[in-house]
What we know:
The complex is a heterodimer of chains A (328) and B (393). By secondary structure, chain A is mainly β. Chain A has one helix at residues 3-21, and strands at 29-34, 39-44, 50-55, 60-65, 72-76, 81-85, 92-97, 102-107, 114-118, 123-128, 133-139, 144-149, 155-160, 165-170, 176-181, 186-191, 198-202, 207-212, 217-223, 239-241, 247-251, 257-262, 268-273, 278-283, 289-294, 299-304, 309-315, 320-325. Chain A has 1 helix and 28 strands. In chain B, helix 1 (53-68) packs across helix 7 and helix 8 (296-315) crosses helix 9. Chain B has 2 domains: 3-148 and 274-353, Rossmann fold; 151-268, 3-Layer(aba) Sandwich (Rossmann fold).
Amino acid sequence: MIKPMIKPLRLILGFAAALLTGAPAFAYTIYVTNEKGNSVTVIDSETWEVTGTYDVGQRPRGITISPDGKELYICTSDEDLVEVYDPVSMKMLHTLPSGPDPELFVLHPSGNPLYIANEDDNLVTVVDVKTHTVLAEIPVGVEPEGMAVSPDGLVVINTSETTNMAHFINAETFEIFQNVLVDNRPRFAEFTSDGSLLFVSAEIGGTVSVIDPSNGEILHKVSFEEPGIPPEALQPVGVRVTQDGKHIFVALGPANRVAVIDGESFEVIEYLLVGQRVWQMAFTPDEKYLITTNGNSNDVSVIDVAELEVILSIPVGEQPWGVVVSPE
Amino acid sequence: MLRMVAIAAALVAWAGAVASAQEITIKAAVLRIETERPLPLSRLDLPPDDEAFAGARVATADNATTGTFLGHVYETLEADATPEDAILALDELEAQGARFIVVTGPAETILALADHAAGRDLLLFNASAPDDRLRNDDCRPNLFHTAPSRAMLADGMAQYLVWKKWTDWLLIHGSHAPDIAKAEAYRRAAARFGAEIEGELVFEDTGGSRVSDSGHVLVQRQVPVFMQEAPDHEVVVVADESQVFGAYIPYRTWEPRPVAGDAGLVARTWHWSWEGYGSTQVQRRFEKDAGRYMNDVDYQVWLALRSVGEAVTRLSSADVQAVRDYIRSDAFELSGFKGVALSYRPWNNQLRHGVLLADGQLVVTVAPLDEFLHQHTRLDTLGYDQPDSTCSF
């Protein structure tokens, strides 16, 4: 309803950003799930224009794309399915069984299988994306949510929000071999690109645990503090690490900030103001930009990774939740 | 009548679940003190037979799932007693090994149980009594409260009404002691948050049948007349914990006014429609297990047993003193699906709550509202804050 007012502003900003960035960047396609809008917004990373909005199943949340860029996977939570789309035509190709209420998932680095957290049943469901069959259901702690796979593809991580653990699962045998107790409501897990560190955010605990995956030891706990923001509003959710491991970006939910953490000292070096209730984030593959979903302001923010600056916000659909960027 | 049932938490031997060497058994109990409760006005409000126990079963299963990874085994006993044989029931539960006792029932019995348990290896949780005196002059060091106090609920309601700028209140309260106490909580809340009580009416409970065939005919004539002489007001605030008349007020007021309090918009800790902050999952777990919606008492029992579970998980010990100290410490944090960590106020052992304000169908808002600030935590804008507390352990 307020879109007509916002649109001209977006065009101006988009134009300014294109001027600012100057040097030709690769054009990627950005896909944003709108949890309440039941849609996916598609954005071009060169022009920062919304190129389309596509209806998908009910309550789309987690979103990921195959390494070859040919299949876009969307957790449609209220359909109890994973919907698979052609990322170019945005036509649905087929669905995958997911177990009830899928929220977040992670694709094996090889592109198969898909590991899905089923919050209702204390399970991680493993789905073969080629044969569309369930390979395994792995019992984990209460309310599983965060999912990650180690870069070598050998270890799957699941975080359980009421058990407050990161479960380490053997990616081949599907057996848990290690559990690490973290702070309250762990939402997200992310490895460094060399697999030497694992970051787990705890939304209610207000911390990010830095874990040595080889022995499950918590090496460091990052906490957050920003003047003028009530401590209980600093709620870490999404975590992304640069390829070189130098910067860790943490979305702080209702604090409307993304914290930037130094990869060596684990100190927060910057708080970037983004939109409201920021949860998930994704880098462009060249790592020039980080896109954040702001659920309560119905927009995404674009962060210039080198400058550590928010350069743009782009209106999307209602309550944006997840974001993924095409490989090329 | 004393009845006891033991439920052992289902222990699934999960392949791959790594249990540490240190096996601990945590034995808790839920003790329901049964008093005669009047029938509610609406048959939708009839208390379920498994109230409190159903919440305990889900909490025990949740604790046990986490326990599987740590070698912790959770067991919860279930017992019913009258106020007269409550002490006997507590002794029996203790003899059976229960150390963490969650009690639902009237304040005086809970207080007697806490005094009886003093100096023994027991920790008590009050999961139902809202009486502020249990958090003030009659507080006890071995008694924790997962039930909200009347002051907390009234403050939560007052914040929203003031936020809406509905600051001129007509207060109607019942004639029973809990209703009079609730009215006092609303007077305190009005003064704290800047509302005016323009007038007060008392609804005398004269007994008689609650429901009669075609009774609505009489009610729709009586209620407006009862409110006819009231001074100007913007909202009607009802204090009717006894549920004698509150449900009769909405839509029958003399002036067209919204109704809040114990009817209309109600302040509570849980609501069957609540899906915020990941609560859908616990709602579904509960509904699958109990075959009905979770209510406030179930949730408050769940919080009590989860508090114990959280402490045992972090401490790797079920020692009663160690659990008590941990629960009262700054380190303790519990997620209760309210978007912030819940913890206990060390000055009176009251669990800090986010208060839901809900009508019959949906949650309208959650208190504390963002606009009400506090130097430590906004949750302490609800109820008796440290400087107001008359509790000393």
